[in-house]
Amino acid sequence: MPVFESPTAVAAKIIVALDVPTLSEAIATLKALPQVQFWKVGLELFCATGPAILEVLKAEEKRIFLDLKLHDIPNTVAAAARAIAPFGVDFLTIHTATGLAGLQAAQAALAHTPTQLLGVTLLTSIDAVTLRTQLQCDLEVPTYVKRMASLAYEAGLGGIVCSAQEAAQIKTLWGESFLRVCPGIRPTGTATADQARSLTPEAAFAAGASYLVIGRPILTAPDPAQAFADICQRCLTEKRDANP
Ligand SMILES: O=C(O)c1cc(=O)[nH]c(=O)n1[C@@H]1O[C@H](COP(=O)(O)O)[C@@H](O)[C@H]1O
What we know:
This is Orotidine 5'-phosphate decarboxylase. The chain has twelve helices and eight strands. The protein has helices spanning 7-11, 23-32, 43-49, 52-59, 74-84, 100-109, 128-133, 141-154, 167-174, 201-207, 216-219, 224-242; strands at residues 14-17, 38-41, 63-70, 91-95, 116-120, 159-161, 179-182, 211-214. Helix 5 (74-84) runs parallel beside helix 6 and helix 10 (201-207) packs across helix 12 (224-242). The longest helix is centred in the C-terminal third of the chain and has 19 residues, at 224-242. The site of orotidine-5'-monophosphate (OMP) has 17 residues, from strand 8 and helix 11.
């Protein structure tokens, strides 16, 4: 369990997914949540705004997770990573199913940049049944995630994206510095909407998540700033209870 000294320290480890369709809605969301330090820009917003949203976030001195989930042949992912490198974002995603050569090529393109490449192991919307019946993979979810994470580790990536349910085993295998970035977070602990593998924020940190990614539980709350503050407070309280 990370040692959080203040709600601000928790806030630094919670990445809020800026899943809105337009630049003006993104700017309004930033204004409504000034205490958020780390934002994720995904496919929806980046396709709508291009790099303009990154400039807005930089002007506000926010950390940036550019979640473009690259997935292509090695030459193409490397070229995309080279094109993204000048943006100077903190995190960028690539699917580990790209394979070792593609992961290595993209990682090489980002060498000597501040951008940490994260390998998406198995989307948190996929459960054991879907993995077996649709993707025709007979591995258990934790085993599959471990195998995909091993590719990311071997390729020298900064870490992975996985469900918090798999974070503990990854931390045990590869240590603290190989990041576990965990979406699928639900304050109720129950998977809702399209998420299938969920944990509560406090359980996710306790399980070894380095960062949480949270979207709708904050953005669609009646009071998003209060929802964010409540989540930070829950993680802080949990830590204090665990270490009185
Ligand atoms: O790479 C991601 O960020 C990601 C990977 C994954 O396996 N699952 C997942 O939900 N995400 C992203 O995390 C965010 C989760 O949003 P909420 O389900 O609204 O909290 C979305 O922006 C997803 O695109």
